[in-house]
């Protein structure tokens, strides 16, 4: 719940789709179960075979709601409207459709977590209620496109079988219309906030950034760690490698052989097109100031000694950073609404009791 649920309309959310797959198969193995010894109790006590774990549909069990509530029950009352049990359940099922990993958290939600979900969705509803017809049309079109992209990912998992996808929707108790409708509401809330974020405001944010926040560099390095060797020994080895590099030896070859950084060992020590602020201060400073193409003296950080060669360094333009800045401004705008306005607009919560205590 750290990130606002209003950001869920992002297509990138769907990229996590298949990351949660395979859990059913892993659970079977951890429980010592195999397709041959799994059974389920059927009617009249009969034992019927469990679902085939090799069937892709088995990897996506139906979301088990952690509560029971009437469709017309009022979950949240707010100025100008209410959140019903039907809407709340449809919202949670839509979240599960977009990201099954989130669904696993919904199933074990306690009352506080359910309240957080309800509060976030209420914020989304309130903001979407401010959308004009132009925004609604744009949001619906975006939702249709997003649905098709997510559907394409599911179809890839289902072997391009449209019938399996339809069966999957039925098994999840969702429909295209429901999912698109929920995504359109979320899109409305985002687009209402985005409407207030002009390019002139973003330009001011850009101009206020220091050089480091606008600089992207490709840096090749060799780390000589001080974790398992004395500092003096590490420094001497780093200096020896510096001398060899300045005599013309291949940087990538030496990095692959000597570096203690597992994250860049296979790339010959290369970190490519990275915003320099992601690095620790000493390394960042070298990436910002060291002449391009030259091997510098060892740079000391908490990790050890780095031999650094900046291969490329560019400063992003406003146009290149505009959408990144807009996304950041959007999150700030939503956070401000959530902190300053939302609770004043909500008059009452009627959060259903979870079926059972949440497990960790």
From TrEMBL:
It comes from the Bacteria. One of its GO terms (molecular function) is peptidyl-prolyl cis-trans isomerase activity. Keywords: Isomerase, Rotamase, Signal. SUPFAM superfamilies: FKBP-like. PROSITE patterns: PPIC_PPIASE_2 (PS50198), PROKAR_LIPOPROTEIN (PS51257). Residues 1-24 form the signal peptide. The keyword Lipid metabolism does not apply. Residues 25-61 are annotated as: Disordered. InterPro entries: PPIase_dom_sf, PPIase_PpiC, PrsA_foldase. The keyword Acyltransferase does not apply. Residues 29-47 have a biased composition (Polar residues). Residues 214-312 form the PpiC domain. Pfam families: Rotamase_3 (PF13616). This is Foldase. It comes from Brevibacillus invocatus.
